[in-house]
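pls read this protein.

:::
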Amino acid sequence: MCSVQECAEQRHRTVYNTGTSKAVSVMSAKTKTILVVDDDEGMRDTIAAIFKRDYRILRAPTGEAGLMVLHREDVDLVLLDVRLPGINGFDVLKIIKENYSLVEVIIISAISEVETAVQAMKHGAYHYITKDFDYDTMRSLVRNALERQDLNRQVLTLSAQIADQGDREFVIGPSKAGRDIIDLVQRVAKLSATVLVLGESGTGKELLARLIHREGGHVETPFMAVNLAAIPRELVESALFGHERGAFTGAHRQQLGKFELAAGGTLFLDEIGDLPMDLQAKLLRAIQEGEIERVGGMKPIKTDFRLIAATNVDLEKAVKDGRFREDLYYRVNVIPIKLPPLRERPEDVPELAQFFLRRYSARFHKRVDGIADSTMRILCNYWWPGNIRELENLIERLVAVGDQQWITDEDLPLEFHLAQLDNAEPSAGGESLFEEATNTFERSFILRALEKSGWNVTATARYLGVPLSTLKFKMDRLEIRELARRLRGV
């Protein structure tokens, strides 16, 4: 990757650095909790009977009730019916994935439809199964989902604590949209005008804000980042404006807010669309007058900062709906920079994937030479709901858990193969593509289970929780039985 200065000449891509971490491997040892969300009491009882010996089971008859359980309980896996009274299963799935990203979800439906399965995977479900499921198959599916959750937690821990004193880079690919963003950054970085960064979650809004701060020649000045959506509503005012001692219960000492701490530098307000209406007036005053008042304070405090705001909310619509002040909107929307979602610039995927591959190969001290061409085509055709962050997390996970020199189709999760169905004709060809995708996933999963069990087929069947005859049938169908026999040394 080139520097920002090189990008100004080459108009290719940009990098910059921002954080540190150390590595720790953690696996959960607590009893897993499964939440069953189904309006059929008999189905809830059946599922509970299957899993109650091994897991803690919670039940909810509606999507709304299920979300309330998730809010107060530590849930690992949700078994979710599609057709529910009130909010439907897909809407519940979307809310879960937006708010409880580590919770795995298995969709359960009374009907078997390819489109339903595709939609479930597209919205982030781990798997899709019909209500006439085989008990052993369901147990194996749940076990596999929970193992993936443990793996995801482990990778996230490695990501957060990896022993690396280098900084994180802002990454932009070679697309025209990427070149245009770099051009605009070069033009506005040294100005004092407010910048509004727009884009979906995972597109790198905070990283771009840090780049603007650095390229503006303010490296030695503070950069204060505040994620307004992550701060409890009752604490937002104090976090932004600070408070005086005794201003409220628990205010044992004076505390400076982010506005004061950012003096002379840059204040980055992420998710500004979530700022409560009563605080929007105070923010407007801070921008216009350059002064604030601490909570419990009696006098204005002058402060000078460069404001960069970001949001994934449509602020124009929020203004029309009365959820965002019109005068504040015009104050922050001076220089808008739109970060397009990754699905709108698939030409960036290969270089971004290779960049992350080099990063995590070095970080995990593994030799991974590259990504197969067919695998790269699958990545380019994927819709990337999590954008660049999702791509980075995927590459990190594949490097962390893989033991081969090349990343191939079989290493990808099932949803990446199912994504190809969107580009296929709704005919027999689509059905064969679906079968190919599921076969790829099954073959990969069985091979990994065989390897874990020392290539012993009987032990693998016990590990997967399926009859030996079923496993042998699948191995013959997927043409891996002879391979397992050779590797076992028979």
Summary: Confidence is low (pLDDT under 50) at residues 1-28, 156-167. Residues 33-161 form a domain with the Rossmann fold fold (CATH 3.40.50.2300). The chain has three domains: 33-161, 192-340, 343-488. Residues 135-161 form the longest helix (27 residues).
